[in-house]
Specification:
With 464 residues, the protein is mainly alpha-helical. β1 and β2 form a beta hairpin. The radius of gyration is 30 Å and the shape is elongated. It starts with a strand and ends with a helix. Zinc ion binds next to loops.
Length: 464
Amino acid sequence: MHIRKDHHLSDSIDITEGVLQGDILSPLLFILFIADIIKFFENRDVEGLNLNNLCQILMLLYADDIAALSHSASSSEATLKVLKEYCDINGLEVNISKTKIMACRTSGRIKKKDKGFQFKGKSIEVVKTYTYLGVALSSNLQGDIAATEASKRGKQAIGSTYLILSRLGAETWLSKKKLHDSMIKTTLLYLVHIWGLRKEILDKLEATHLLYFKRIFHLPVCTPHYLPRLELDIPHISPEVLKYAYNWVIKILDMREDRLSKLGLTRLIQLSANYKSPNLNWTLPVKSLLSLIGEEQMFEDMNATHWKVNKDRILNKYRSFLKLQDLKRYSKSESCQTPIPRSLEDSLPIYLTRGSFHTITPKLQLRVANIYSCNISTKLGVIKLKPAELCRFCHNSEKETIAHFLINSTFLSSLRSEYLQISKEVSDHLNLIIILDDHSTSGFKNLLNYLTACSELFNSITPN
Ligand SMILES: [Zn+2]
């Protein structure tokens, strides 16, 4: 090895032991060196996890990472004993501080005999959670810890994306949406098909990714999820999760019959018929997602082609199912102030593709306003309406709703007559829809100018 400084190289330094930190040669040499480890364990009759009497899974090997599996505390002890023998013969050292034991149980506490393991006289720590290849696993194998971790990372990604946006000045809705897909979605969904298929976890993921959209549009956190989803035509996260799981099934079905993943999936399907806890059999939450759209029979035909040809149809069916649910909630919604007619075929409202981000924001805020609070961001500041309280300006016992603000307020009547056209012939509700659903350039501009003028008026009378 030489060391370069500016344009000069040092004399050569011989490396006689070990490899450089981070060198890809290191895991490769390690893999070659321990290539006989499974045979070694098999020859000594160590028991791993029995897979349908077809094979034993003794350990999972990935690069320089070894995870040994046992079905009981006593067989774990036998594993450790054979591991010591293997290390002694091959001159290997085990880093005890990095070695952990996790006892997995479906319920109840960890038993005493599942603690107190030793290796060469040193205690090995027994842990309740362990991060294996980037996924946080807990001893109850329910996926909650991975979901909490993913949520935390997702929120960090939202924070850093928000920072990038403020520096870049990404000025259109589509550019902000792209940043979401590339930074937040990918962080949130890392290996999600392993841990994120349960309903409670899916709900958590939906809430986390929507935080981004609520934040960039300054929507109150209490805004029901379906409002920004319908308005912005943002798909749910769960069809993405189902897609990950679905692709994983296809990948396994394409494997050779003797591969562990394939044997494992076959066994899980056999066991799924009478399994006590649905959360511990990977196929069951997948099946229950499919059963929402009447497609649970997919598991009756485990043929790769069958799964491949049905993929797009099933995923689209699930997306439509969820959108329909949103529409039902929306039509019955008591928390939305201005219900606008919407249908399953609706895509992105045209105004979102036209204006710059700060001009589309106030219109969106009005269209998805809820009954608890509403921010309207104008270039002269934010108007904060409190729909549950009486109007601060009119003194006529009317509440500060969107209808009051846009149609009835006596305090704003002169501004209104300048910018908005209100018909006395139709109801307030219809007038509201006419204003908020008017996507013509003049309609869009008039609304924006009205909001700016209101903001100016409020600033002049409410001291900061
Ligand atoms: Zn008023």
